Each structure stands twice: as C-alpha cells, then as structure tokens.
Fold these 4 entries.
Entry 1:
Amino acid sequence: MSQRKIGVTELVLRDGHQSLLATRMALEDMVEACEDIDKAGYWSVECWGGATYDSCIRFLNEDPWVRLRTFRELMPNTQLQMLLRGQNLLGYRHYEDEVVDRFVQKSAENGMDVFRVFDALNDPRNLERAMKSVVATGKHAQGTICYTISPVHTVEGYVKLAGRLLDMGAQSIAFKDMAALLQPQPAYDIIRGIKETYGEDTQINVHCHSTTGVTLVTLQKAIEAGADVVDTSISSLSLGPGHNPTESFVAMLEGTAFTTDLDQDRLIGIRDHFAKIRPKYKEFESATLVDTDIFASQIPGGMLSNMESQLKAQGAGDRTKEVMDMVPIVKADAGHPPLVTPSSQIVGTQAVFNVLMGPYKRMTAEFTDLMLGYYGESLGERNPDVIKIAEEQSNKPVITDRPANHLPPEWDQLVAETAKLEGNDGTEEDVLTYAMFPNVAPAFFATRDEGPKSVAKTEAQLKAEAEGQAGASTGPISYKVSLGGREHSVKVEPA
C-alpha cells in the first residue's frame, strides 16, 4: 500500500509550554532536546513568536533574539517556525509598515524560515503587509485562518478567506483552532472545500488544541480531507489546554494510507527530556484537563482564568457565571470576532466591566477601538447602538479602511528612544524589542548583562520536596471509617 506522507510541526518549544506552563520555560531546559528534534524528521519546529518574546524579557532576563539564533545553530536541518500576529507583530497594537518590514527582515536574518501570520479578526488587510514582507525575504509565508463558530461563520466563508490569503502570496494555509472548537466533520468539510476550490496541491497545515477532547479525531478527518501538515506536541508536554501528543498521532496513522516517517527513537528521547523538565515548572501548570463547556461558551481556558483573576481583584469572584453569560453577548455586539489574542482579552475584559458596572456604562479603550474599526473588520455586523456609545465615550470616529493606514511613520522615533536606554546594544533587534514592549524593555536592557534567570525549580529543590513528602509519611496514617452507623478512628503504619 502506497502511503501519503503527512508532515508534522512540533510545538513543544513554543505553544506546548506556552499553553501548559504559562510560557515560562527557559532556553537552558530546551537545548538538550534540540539534536533529537532536529533529526526526528519534522516538517518544521515552532520555537518562537506568540508569547515567548514577551516572556523572555519580562520573566527570564533572556534576549529573544539570542534564543532564535541558538535554535538556528542547534537545529540546522529543520525549518524553524514562528507565530506572528500580522500588523500587531508580537506586541499588542498595530505597528506602522516600516516596523513590520524590519521585524520580518530581522527575524529571517536571525534564522526564521516559516512565518505563520494571523490576525485576531481574520481581517486580510491586517495580514497583507507582513505576508508581503515574508515573501520579499524569500521565506515561507503561511496565511492563517483563526477558527471560530458563530451564526456568520460558514464553510463557504472559510474557503473564500483561504483564497484571499493565497492571492496575497501565501505558500500554505494554516487552519488555527486555538480553543479546540474544531470538530471532525467541519474540519473535513472546510479542508475538502479549500482543496477542491484551489487545487489539491494547496498546502494546508492544521493546528488544534486538545482542551475539548475531540481534536485527535479532528486531525484524522483533516488528513482524510487532504491536510498536508498537522501540529502536535511531544506527549510529556501535551493534552489539556495544550495539544495532541506527537507519538499518539504517529500511532493513530499505523495501518492507514498515511505515514509521518518520524524517527521513533528520537521521539522517545524528546519525550524523556521534557518528562524530566516538566516538574520544574509545576507551579505554572494549567489545572485544566478536559473542558467541553468551551463548545457552548467558546471561551479558551487562558481567557477564562484571566477573567476570573480580574473578578477576584474586584472582590467579585462569585460572579464568574454572569461574566461567562455576558461574553457571547459582547462577542456578538463586536461582530463575532474569533477569541484569540488580543480579541479574547478585549471581549473578556469588557464582559467583566458590563457585569460589574452595567452594560457598556464604561468601555475599555481597547473595546472602543474594536467597535470603531481600529483593530480591523469583523466578519459579522457590529451593533450600531454600541458603536454609537463607543464614539461618545472615546470622541473618535469610525474608520472603515485598513487600520495601519492611520499610523504615522515611527521607526526613526523608536531608534532615537531606544538609543537613550541604558544597556541597549545599538542593534535594530533592540529597537524592535523596545517597539514591542516599551514598558518592559528598559528594565530588561539594564539587567541583560546579568544573564538569563530561570524561574524553574532546581533539581536540588525538587529532591528536597520529594524527600520532605516522603518524610512526612513515615508515621502512622489516620483514617476515619464508618461501620454500622458508628464512626471509628483507625491508624495504619506505612509498609
């Protein structure tokens, strides 16, 4: 039986630990696995972008550009992949076109190969410049569609959006399911639709989280529909709000018309490495295992925990249910945007405000910008009454063209401001770090020479904790046992 080869993108160096360990993994805990990853036979390894850049400078005193160059050196045979938020790059606002161009160029120079470019609203105008920049560097531009479910999102709509991205120069289409909402049949229908409309040679990569428990089956159906590459994370850092396990995916294809050709011995090496590393980050672990409520609420786990912390800070921790009921209302008023960074935070925070203060009595600056078009166009129609309130509260007009058209040139000013910061090294990379995170970069530059500062527990700390737990259980253990309606205390000596 001839088998079709399915490419695999390994996520453990980026989204794997971002989803399960709050993006806290230090570079020193990844380098030993890089040789096995490089020789396992992956289509690509996602190792940069997303929230890792922010975490490097905010928590780890680590230069993200050094991380990228290190991965390039340690994995010479593998395509390195990053997640790029279109016109937002890796920050939380739109950047002017020259900044976008320079960021993409520097990322390519430092070793990046595959740029997965997405926009929270699926507005192609917010992808256009970044995609064009990637094509200009000669690297792989992957146009990305964020999946969500709403009355206005259809199979035909997703197929049409794929066509717009291909027209922009996308060399592949990534279908990104960040909330584990993508069920097997819709995945089949959408991927089949893209292949039949634009040709069987249109490369489609599928990215699913595992939070709802259905998406390993989704990957199987996606492949049957013609998907070419899927994203997985090594089993020792998988499942929950993370991703489907790489080894499980490989095993699933045994005896079928599909194969990955991944090196099993290398996978075992990668698995064992991260099994050893994971306990060091236990305090950052997500508690979620399976959450099927997401099918109804469409609230990703990270968004839910963010809203809960906001409510607790306001002394309103008992009102989570009200906020969860408010989220779909706010989402509909905003035109049903997919809930992914930054739209998930914007919608979630406004839902909290609505519950605590009354509907739209006070809007966040970000939510007014979302309603007025400054983040781009939503697929659904935005509520005109809420738009009017946003105009009144912000004194800003509605815009309908590409948001970045309203941004003045900013590169020269960013260069000048960075030059004044203690510890800056005079490179464009440092200017870009400051551009992304102007409130965090100055402190990072000032302490960078002190070197990376891991937040993981050391081997000695883990050993002491284990010994402490063992010591605590050396005495007799007390149990309460109920027999015939009477309660008895029983002490049992450990064996």
Note: The longest helix spans residues 184-198.
Entry 2:
Amino acid sequence: MTAPPVLDMHGIDKAFLGVPVLTSVDLRIERGEVHALVGENGAGKSTLMKILAGVHTADAGAIELGGRAVSFTHPLQAQQAGVATVFQEFNLLPELTVAENIHLGREPRTWHGVDRRAMAARTAKLLDDLGVEGLAPTAKVGSLSVAHQQITEIAKALSQGADLICMDEPTAALADAEVELLYRLVRRLRDRGVAVLYVSHRLREIFDLCDRITVLKDGKHVTTVDTADITPDELVTAMVGRRIESVFPERLQGTETGEVRLRVEGGGNAWIDAIDLEVRAGEIVGLAGLQGSGRTEIAEAVFGIAPFTRGTLSVDGTPMRITGPRKAIRAGLALVTEDRKAEGLALRQSVRANARMILDANPRVRSRRRLGRIPGLLSSLDLVSRGEDQEVQFLSGGNQQKVVVAKWLAAEPGVIVLDEPTRGIDVGAKHKLYSVIRQLAAEGLAVLLIASELIEVIGLADRIVVLHDGRIAGELPAGATEQEVMAYATGRRGAEAEPS
C-alpha cells in the first residue's frame, strides 16, 4: 500500500476583509521531497505558508498530514503535528546558547535542575547527524552568522520531531559560501526522509535543489510539475506570463554612449587594489565576482563610505577626493545600497518623505524645482501605492525599491551605482526594475550595476568588469557567457593571463 503524502492541502480558500487571497489552492508534498513554492509577490505563497503554520485559518478546504485530517488555529498546534516553519525573521533568543534555544521548554533535567551536559551532548549529536561543522552547542546565538542561526532553527525543528520543514526565502541574507552550507543541509534533510517546502524567488536554487515545483499566480494554483520536466523559461512564463528572454529589455533605441562620467585610476584601499574603471554616459557597466571579491567595496569607495586611499577618481573629467556621502551627492553620485530596509528607507515614513530624503538632508542640492519633480518621478517609475502618504513599510519589495531609486533621481545624479537592486523581489518586479535601469541609461546616466546573479549582469550590462580577490581580473563585452565570467571570477582565466 502506498504511503500517504506528508502534506495534502486541497481546495484552500482564504480572504481578508472580503478580498480573496487564495482560491481553491492545492499543494501535495511527499516524504523526502524538496518542493518549491513559487510565484510573484501577491501570488499567495506567504498566506498559504501561514495557514500551514497555524498563523491563519483557511476559510475552506482541507489539510491532511500523513493521511490524517488536521485543522490549526495556533502555531503550537502545527508544531506539535510535525510542521516547522523557518521564516526570514528567526524565532531565536540571541542571549541563549545554541543548545538552550534548541531545547527551550524541553530541557533535560536532573534532580537539581537543567542537565546542561546532556543538553549539549544531544545538540552535538543532532548537528553531527545533519553534517554541520563549526557550530558549537555552547555558542551564543547572537554571535552567530545568519547561516548558523538558520541551522539552529532547523535543528530545533528536527529535535521537535518535524516531518515537514517550510523555508521562507532561506538564502535571502546569506553569502555565497553560506548558501552552499544550506544546500548541503537541505539535501541531508531529504536523505533523512524529511519533507521540505522551499519558497524562493531564485530560479537557480529551485532548479539546483527542488524535486517538484508548485506555481501560484493571483492566489490560484497554476501547475505542479517535476523540476526535470520544466525549463527556467517555461517556469517564468507560468509565474508571470512572459518568456524569460523578455525579462531583460533590449537597449532602448536612441541610447547613446557619451563621455566618461566616472573614472577610477589605480584606486585602492584596505580591501581593493589597482582598480581601473570607466563608466560613460548612457552605459551600463556590470561588476561581477564571487562574494568577497570587492564589488560592494568599490561602490563604497566611489561613494566615500570607505574612500579610496590610493589612486584617483574623476567625475565628468574633474579629479575629486570623495571622503563621504555628502561630497559624493554634491559631485552628482548616487548609491542604491543592497539592503533597502536597513540602509535605504525610513519604513515608517511616507512615500513622499522617503522620496524627499536626499534633498531634505542635503540643502546644497535641494531646490524647489527638484522637489517639484518628485511626483513625476514616482509616476514614471510606475510606483504602485495608495498615494504619496502611504507608509513605505506597506509597499511590496519591488515598489519599495522604486522609492529608493526615486529618492536618488530627485537629486539629478550623473552616475548611479546600483548594488543588488533586485535582491528579495519577485520575477515580475525584477522585470520592471530592469526596464527602469535601461531607461536611466537612455536618459544619459552612467550606471554601475552590481549583482550576485550572473544572469542579471549578463542580461543588462553593456560591459562586464569581473573582480577576483579585490582586483579586476578581466573585462568582457555584452553577451558574455556565465562560464566566461566565472573563469575570471574564480581566478582561473585571470591567473592564466598573467605573465609568468
């Protein structure tokens, strides 16, 4: 007799204030399966996960775990039934150790209190079974990397007997090396027969890790398919209704490459060295490289956050010493940082207040004309909001990023540096931002683009500068392949090109 699936959700409906969010959604996950749940922002993924986690209750439909009907009205019920959810915001106590977090409320005891030796031993065995190295049971969680905090959450779930672990954008805040650690852990869970529901916007992860994929669109089930039976192009079409080739818009007609707007010659500091870089008006130059290669360090040096201590920097042909962001702004530079929530926005302030932020903080660039351009800028970026008074925290990730771009464009820069501009937003929102980037170049801005996903650099950049170990390893034209970029990024091609 065939064993029932770990999870069978069928006919799930959910509405908030009369607005349907999920309509007759099905989701079935087998034991030992890594199952991707994908869709644009607003597709219903988070709501479906929260119903499964006991945060919300479905209006209609049924849920079965291991063939047994369940209905959750509280997260503790889901946990007791063997469902664990690892959200992007971890549910850990930073002042406690790894072992204490894993066994919180279930500590082994002796007649005189908590048996800390037994608790540490159980934790060490659990981590060893998961193939985790370098994570001490006695380490304070607050001192751990994001990846090790995530592993602690997963270990806690397994210690509670979880048969199904739901992961919400698990690599959103991880460095490249940490992503590999998570990959190994997910595969180890699958080998142990644990089912994993994997929610991610990153197509590469889905195709690397997942056995099957369920696609939601507008709160409805579109398809469930074996990963081996679908291509990235077909998956994007299912998610957003357009082919992957159209995700990266072509260079706009009439875009002209003009004079050099940003030039760095022999630039260096404690993290990068011998940087020779030019970005011209109307040009998108991509910076590619592995984590720690120096991409963000170049952006921070150009913008004066961690200034160049060697070499020269020129803006529109004028040598300058940029020693801080205010000087950078006055010189016509803009920097869209990779963490929009922590560094780019005041989340509890309005769209209008955020869009004015650079002008209000820098009287030397503020003018009535520039302030008056803000509504038109927001409109030109196709911002979707209830109005300029809406708090930014209630916008989608893609629309939050548009507000960040608008606040910099209000200062009328000549050079804009985009550091991971599409991080954490869905495929459809990415497409809209790609169009914005093309439009910026068409309007004569010099664009320096940093992205971890090579497909973005390759799809958008007119030239690609590849970094390795804090230095420029090589430069490639538009249309370069991922293999060509990686040959430089890993030091293979760069090393071969160096004279012996």
Note: The radius of gyration is 25 Å.
Entry 3:
Amino acid sequence: MAGGKLTPRQKMINLMYLVFIAMLAMNMSKEVLSAFGLMNERFEGSNMSAMSMNEQMLAGLDSKASEDSHFAEAASKAHKVEAASKKFFEFIGTLKSEVLKGVETDKETGKLPYEAMDKGDNIDNSWFKGEGYSPRGNEIIANIEKYKAEIKAAVGNDSKYVSILKEINDKFNVTDVKNKEGLKVKFLEYHFDKFPSIASLAKLSAWQNDVKKTEADIYSSLLGKAAVAAASMNNFQAIVVLEKNAYFEGEAIKGKVVLGKYDANTKPTGFVGPGRIENGQAVIAMSAGAVGEHPLGGSFTFLEDGKSISIPFKGSYVVVPRPNTANISADKMNVVYRGLPNPMTISFAGIPDNAVTASAAGLTSAGGKGKYNLNPGSGTEVVVNVTGKMADGKSVSDKKVFRIKNIPAPQGAIGGTAGSQKGAKSRLEASTITAVLPDFLYDLNFEVTQFALKVPGQASIVVNGNKVDSRCKAALSRAKAGDQVTISDIKTRVIGASIATKTAAPAIYEIQ
C-alpha cells in the first residue's frame, strides 16, 4: 500500500492508514483480553455462590438424615461427592496459581491487569514438552480422570445419575480434539497452548464452575430421591384399631384397620389425655381402674399454616382379674447345673415383685427385681416354690421342678484350639495348654493345672502347670516329622466356681 509509483503525499496517507489499522487491532486485542477478564470475574463470583448453595444443600441432607433414616444413604453419597469435588476444585486452583505466577494485581482496583495478560508462557513451558505433555500435563489429565471416576463411584449405577455423569464426561473429555484444520491435537494443547494467560484463567474458572454445578445437580437429585423414599407407601403400616382391648368369650369383636405412618418429625403443639408428649408422640401413663371396661380419650393439637388444629381420639380398655399362676423360668435353659449360680427370673403375673417370695435348696437373691441364683447341691432334681400375696391380702402359690445336671468334661486345647492339629515343634513349645467347653450355655474359664505329654517311642512326661517344660522340649527335639504328640490326663479347675477338678479330653499335635 505504501510502495509503488505513488506521490510522497499518497505514501504518507497510506502509511497513516496502516498505523491506524494497527492501532485498531491493538485496541481490539485489549478489549478481548478485558472481556476474558470480566468473564473470569463472573465465573469466580458464580463459583462463590455455588459453593455457598452446595454447603446449604449438604447441611440440609445431613439434617434430614439425622431425623429420617431414608436420607442417611443420600447423605453418605453426598459427602463422597463433596470430597471428590473439593479435591478437584482445589487442584484446579493450583493450576490457576501457575497461570498467575509473576502477575500482580492493581493496588488501587485490586483487579488483575487483564490487558497485559496476553502471553501464556507459564503454561506453555510447564504443561507441554515437544508434541506431547510434560509430567505436569500428565498429572492434570490423571486428576481429571480420577475426579470423574470418584464421582461415578460415589453415585453408583443408579440410572437417575446417567445424564449427570454423561455431562461430566462431555465437559472433561480428555481425548484428542480436531482443530479447524481437521488435525487431531492433544486436549490440553487445543484448550491452552499459546493462549493468553487471561483466557486460560477464565477457562480454568469455568472448569471450577462445572465442578460446582455437577455437585449441585447430584445434591438436588439425592434430595429428591430420598424425599420420594420417605413418602413411599412402604413407610406406612396397617394398624388394627379395635373398639376395646379385651373381650370375653363369645363377645362380638368390632373395630377397623387403618393406614398410619409413624413420623418422629411430626410434633404436636399440645396434648390432652392420660399421658404426656415425648419425642413427638403421646406416651400414656395412668393407673388401671377396677375390673371392667373403661373409656380412653383425648386430643392432639397441631399448628398448620398459622392455625391451631385439634385431632380428637377415643377408645377403651378392659381390666380383667389378676392371674394366680406363677411365671418361673430358667434364664439359660430348663435344667440347672450343679456347682454354678444358675440365673433365674421368678414372678407372679399381676403381683409386684416385693410381694413374691421364692424358696428352694441353694436359691439366693441376685439383687434385681425377681432375679435369683440357684446353686443346686446333691440329687437329680430341685423344686422351686413360689408364693405371691395379692392386693386383697390373699395368697397364691405355685411350684416347678428342675433337673440337675453335672457340668460336662472339657476338651483339651493347644494354643486355644481343641482336638487334633498340625504344626512345627517350636509352636507347640511356645503354646499354652488350655481346656474349652464348646457350645456350652455358660462362659466358663478353665485353668489347666497338670497334663501329660507323650512323644512316640519315649516315656510320658507329667507336667505341673499349663506349659511344656525343659523335659518336654528335650523329648520334642527327638521327635520326627509325622509323629503325633499326645497331650492327655489334662487336669483342670473352673475359675470362679466351686466345681471339682475335671479331666479334659486329650489333644493331638502332629509334628511337621
């Protein structure tokens, strides 16, 4: 434009046009850089809002989970999503720090110098190497893939989250991308290589915004799914409501079956009736009247849309005469064992414990209401006699016979294992000889006081205590692989019980 056979004046005009066009290009470039800066500000502002909103949704899920078990699983998944999102969000923050390395904010405005951020050397020199990625570039790709995998693992295979997972994969698809020339280039190269630093910063803020949006989408979905589960008909129960709670033989039974839902979160503002409000429900507390039918009624008061609503209830109960048969049961089984304090519960239905007395050979009080210990002596049976004094002063009596059995002999054990086992000599030398009583109703601790060790081809060695001594070790040193060492004549005593010494069954140990 400024060359050729032109007059000096025309050349000057043409040169001025070139300068003018260059200045327009420079101004446009600055405007574009500023636009990227403003875009970055918008993304960062949106990220702060999304972060606050997500925290509120997560807190809401936790609150609902503490009140309703239907939200417990949703809250658990949400915290996994929160952990994965936070980790990846903060990692992107480290990438933004790399972009801003060496860039200082304006002291007056506090903003970044957008128009001066037209180079991307920090990223170009750090993320790329030759035609591929540097170690830092590979680390970025790995973190993206890890984030996607952790989100998928957190939500599981529920079809409800398919669209969300697809959106994540689309936004963070790290496969090669075709450029405008139709050539495939690396994902990071396509998005960041040779870009102005302010453009890269805005794109990374957009990544963070994608993370927060995904987090919000999953929280919303979890809240909705848990709310549907809480409202499911599976949470309702069919309740039988009879006109009264006791009937005489041949009397007509009348009532109805209704669907009800027990909700601990529904709390009445008031209650009138024979009881009090506890944890959102009325707990009836009253004394039964005389024999016969009695009415039972009252009302709940709830606050709904600022108005007080009363819900009345009514029913009845029947008082029947007190029974005169004792309830006697062995807490462990229907026999008692000699030498042990067999726990028993003894009561008379309808008679307070302080008006019930029981007697038997070896029966003593255990301290609790209706609780006794029966330690039988000789013989094969023991009779428990019970007497109850009713409120009218009359007494009723009953009795029950229990069989007396001896405690069975225990089994010898090596290192806590009964029966036959195999192992090295060193293991047997270091093991403790014990005794156990498998499948017995009582937890008994046996202490071995003496045993005999027999190595094939050698004399039996009697040991006082529960470990092999030097004589046993000498005998074991001459044992060969395949020899079966017998631990027999195992004398035991029960710790904490007055039971005669018992001999446990032998234990066999094969040398390997």
Note: The chain has nine helices and 28 strands.
Entry 4:
Amino acid sequence: MVSLGIAETTGVVKNRMDLFDPYFDNNRKGWWQKAEVYRFRKDLIDMMFGNEDVHSYAEIVKMLLASEGKKTGITIVEKPIVRTKFKRLQETGMEAENYFILHFDKEEKFQGGLLTDARIYGHGYDFQVDVQDHSYLAEVKGIRKPKGRIRLTAKEFEKAKEFQSDFILSLVTNLDDIPKIVLIDNPLKHFEFKKILSKMKLLNIEA
C-alpha cells in the first residue's frame, strides 16, 4: 500500500485495520472500544456489497483509488452494477440515512417509535416515525463535518410548511468522524432558506 502511494505510512494502514478488526473473528482486537461507534460504516458496506465476491470487491477498491487520483497502474474491469453501487456509496445522503435508520430511536423524541421508510415515494420526506399515536415526518440530511450547509427541495419545503412542528429536519453531522444526530422541528421557523431555481433538460425521443 505504501509502495503504491496509496497510504503515506504503514501506520495509516494499521489504523484502518484496527477500525474493522472488532467485527471479525481473528487474533487482532483492534479498536474494540470503538466497535459500536463505527459500526454504521460496516453496516453500510455490508448493505451495499455484502453479497459481492472477492473479485468484485477488489474492483470496488480499484475504483476508490482511481476516484482519489491514485495512479497505481492497475487495470479496472468495471461491472455496471458494481460501479452504480460504488457511486451510491459515495453519496453523503445515503450514509446519513443509513445512520439514521440504525440510531433514530436513541433520540428522546423518537424513543419507542416505529420507523416507516418513505424514500421511494418522493413525497418530500424520508421517513415517518410513529411514536404512540403521534406521527412525525423525518427528512434526513448528511453533513461531513460538524457544521455545514443543507438544501431542501421544493417538495421538502412544502412538507415542512404544511406539517410545521411535526416535520423534523434530522441532520446527521460529522459523518467523517463520529456522527451525531441533530433534530430540528419546524425548520422553517429556525432557518431562512434562499430559493434557487435549476433548469432541467428534456430529451424527446421518437420511435
């Protein structure tokens, strides 16, 4: 790894091994104290690539190196579905949503709640959380650092306006280190949003 320029020192490689050692039956304990802190990363990788064989996973590692500009001289033989999964893995939103699914019920407002995934419907929120007879709409946004900017789509903005305190902006911050969930009810009351218009290109195809 060091000779290929992928890692600066062998210590960097060892640190990455330490992160994952607690999850495998081997002679290395690694950072067993942080097993639960970093479990969300293992769960995300398992969810995306748990069924891949060693050859497919090797291609994923090669794509990661290429995306970071590492020139290793290694030829990449890409499978379309593997490349698609790799691109999804790089999305901050997906990582944040996965973390939220695993940890939402640790938040006081959502304790004892039942989570329903609403992402597929595209209605302006990611999850519905039912706590006893009360339903909350949770829109999850991910931020790599402890602080950062977020955007709401037009649908998300309208849902926030309609449901007010029952619309919970669920920020998963500090994803690059130790994530933290920050819940903000009625975000339109607490933040001022600037409207940005984007143009969409339409492609007409005649058969």
Note: The chain has a mean pLDDT of 82.
